[in-house]
Amino acid sequence: MGAIPDFPPEKLELAASGDSAATEELVRALSAPVYYFCLAILKNGEQAEDAAQEALLKVLSSLVSFKGKSAFGSWVYSVASNHCLDLARKNSRRRETSLEELSLSGFEPCDGSDSEAAAARHSLEAALAELSEEHRTVINLRELAGMSYGEIAAATSCSEGTVKSRLFRAREELRRVLAARGEKPDAEPVAKEL
Amino acid sequence: MGNCSELEKAYMFGDGELPPEEAAAAIAHAASCPDCAAAMETHERVKTYFSLLRQAARPVGLEASVKYALRAAAEEDIGILWRAMVPAGALAFATLGCWLLLDSWTDQQPLSDMIVDRGSAIYEVIGGTDDLLRQLKLEGQDL
Ligand SMILES: [Zn+2]
After folding, report:
1. Do A168 and B8 touch (CB under 8 A)?
2. Cβ contact (<8 Å) for B46 and A124?
3. For A9-192, CATH number?
4. Tally of structural domains, chain B
5. Is ipTM beyond 0.85?
6. Which of A61, A65, A186, B116 could cross-link to B137 by cystine, CB 3.0-4.6 Å?
7. Is the pTM of this model over 0.90?
8. Pairwise CA distance, residues B25 & B30, whole Å
């Protein structure tokens, strides 16, 4: 089960023909998944929201070209993926390095507390930040965007097998980094306190 | 990192991607394999973290802004249609006016008279009066 539900073809045809109720239903169902996908790729909340809006408008305006050969969710993610990759390319061309690293502290005001939970969270964020771009992205797509292996495969133009092995290597790399940062691999999980 | 050959299954269990029998086997295996147990724990911790991040970063105004953009685009389409129709209508009226004006300067029967003559023929059939016809003709010449 992916993050985007399957829609009956009649509903998609209605939305493609401009029916406002069907269009609104699609917008309601797609907004969050497309946004979290953009956030997983761009790693910046503000840019992700702008990109998600543009990607959603692209999806709606090109609905007529969806022939149902793949799952609807996979098609939506491939449209959003093309849009995000274009943006990421433009950003790198303009040498925009102002992307704030995706982290909880980037969204929540810092209250100055130094609890064990906050320390564990920072440790995990630091470990995630140490991963390669490829490994960080695949973890983001799975855990933040909540995408199925198949949806990640469609969005990144590779096979499900590749997604599974990449995800496995990324998770093992994360465990290695956490261990290197002084956390025992078999330590008590602190996530429950978060 | 780990050496156990079942590690990938430990992660897939956390992803909810294993069929029930394999999921049960993965839990039973982790009970006696510290490596897989640690992998499952780290995976749980990562999932909890991202679930908090999802809540904190949720797109509050996105749905409304997409609907607003759709409405604006629809209104823009109507605006383009109107903006195209107004000059087209004005051009049509101007062309008709010029045609009638030029027509009245030629030796042929003016078009305005032809229109009134046709009108008078129809009016005679339905029993109209000369006064009304004259009035029509005057209005026609004014064009
Ligand atoms: Zn094991």
Report:
1. yes
2. yes
3. 1.10.10.10
4. 3
5. no
6. B116
7. no
8. 9
